[in-house]
Structures are given as C-alpha cells and as structure tokens.
Amino acid sequence: MQVRKQAFSSIEIMRFLIPSALGVLFFLVPFPQDGTFNTVLGIIIDWGKETLKPILVVTAMTLVVASALITIYASLLKPSFIMKSQFFKDLFVVSPLWSISRILGAIFSVMVYYKIGPEAIWSMDTGGTPVLVLAPSLLVIFSVLAAAVSLLTDFGLMEYVGTLARPLMHPLFTLPGRSAIDTLASWLGSSSVGVVITTRLHDEGYYSDREAAIISSSFSILSVAYIYVMADFVGLPNMYFQILITIYAVSFILAILAP
Question: CB 3.0-4.6 Å disulfide test: which of 11, 111, 194, 255 passes with 220?
Fold first, then answer.
C-alpha cells in the first residue's frame, strides 16, 4: 500500500516547531537549582509563590468567596450574559452538589482566615492547611500553567510524540501514546503539571475516565524536585540519585502492574 506524503509549508512547520520547542524547554528540561534540578516552569512558580506570598492567602480566599457568590447568583437568577456564554454557563451554573461545595468552601475559608468558630475548623491540622497553604500554592501553579500548557497540547507536539510512543505506552500501561508527554512532564518537571495536562485532555475528550485515572495515580505523583526535598528532609541528600533511581524503578513497575 502506497503511503501518501503530505507537504507542509515552512510557516506550518515553524508553527509546530517553535511553540513545541518552548513547551519542551519550559516543562521538560531540568535545570540546576539550589543543589537539585527544576524546570523553567517550576522556577517561575517558586518565584511567584515567594514574590506574591503576602497577598496570596487573601487573593485565594477572595476568589473562593467570589466563586460561591457568582454561582448562587447564576443558579438562581440565570442572567443572560452568563446563560448566553457556554464558558460562563459551564463555570457557574453547576449541579446542586457543586453549588453546596462552593458555598461551604467559601464559609470555611472565611472562618479559617479570621479564625472564627471552634479551633477544630481553623487549626493547621484541619482547615488551616488547605486554606492557608494549599489554596495559595495552587493559585500560583494553575495561573502559570494555564498560560503555558497550550504549548504542549495545542501545537501538535502531543500528536507527534503520541504517534512515536504508542507502541510503548499502550502495551506497557494500556495508555494512548500522547500520555507520554504527561509522564515526562510529571517525572521531570512537577506532578502538578501532569495533573493539569491530564485534566485538560480528559475534559476535551482525549482521555477516558480510566486512562485519566491511571495517569494521575501512576505518574502524576512525584517529580525530581520533590524527591530531592524528601531526601533532604530525612537527612540523605548525598544519596539523592540512588533514591531517585530506586523510586522511579518502583514507580515504573507499579505503573505496569496497577492498570
């Protein structure tokens, strides 16, 4: 059977090469940082967390409260400017379960921030950690990744790598070839990066529920930087590479067996 070759113009090739190369540089190429390795995106995220630290908690709480208020407004009154926009409709006109979750989240966020009510709610062992630590951190992570993740997903890199990686990814992990980018982004960069990519592709219909669950639970759980932090925490930074190789070997085996 004769395979028909399709010719591409230099502009089309550049549209693929330049954004894809930037995506690889930002997400997948590790650089030395403070005795370990981190990606460009990881460095930007760390810088954002440190620079915006004084306002992150208030900003995160404000967004949670605003989301709950707009959800109540949209669900009850159904204003035309929201109902006519599919984006805003999907974002704010949600099921009763999600509406209640947002309302409770807003109430608990305010209680934790101002330390209102019993300590069992605003203690760092309970509500304090997600409101004062996780939410501000995730705000920076998702803000940065939302602007950069399209470099990997929208310019053909995932399709190109997916075609090459399909013979490996499907037999070993029962995953489509495009998931190879997810695994590299998680393992070499940040597990948060892998989760964002997986969530976006799942929402767009490229992954089934099962495939998204496999990627998130088998690959988006660790990164080179996080392994270094843990090695340093237990007092073994001198054995970082041995720990890294061991963890990745075990994770690789589990990723084959678990699916």
Answer: 194
Place of tokens 């767009």: 204
Region for 144 from its dihedrals, namely left if φ exceeds 0, alpha if ψ lies in -120 to 50, beta otherwise: alpha
> For residue range 145-164, what is the model confidence (pLDDT) as tens digits?
777 878 877 888 878 887 88
d(Cα 238, Cα 234) in Å, to the nearest integer?
Answer: 11
The reported pLDDT for the residue numbered 38 is 74
What is the Cα–Cα distance from 252 to 219, expressed in whole angstroms? 9
Report the distance separating Cα 257 and Cα 217, nearest Å.
Answer: 12
Task: State residue 223 phi and psi, 5-degree precision.
Answer: -155, 165
Residues constituting the chain: 259
The H helix count followed by the E strand count for the chain is 16, 2
Residue 165 CB burial class (10 angstroms; 0-12, 13-18, ≥19): buried
Per the confidence metrics, is the pTM higher than 0.90? no
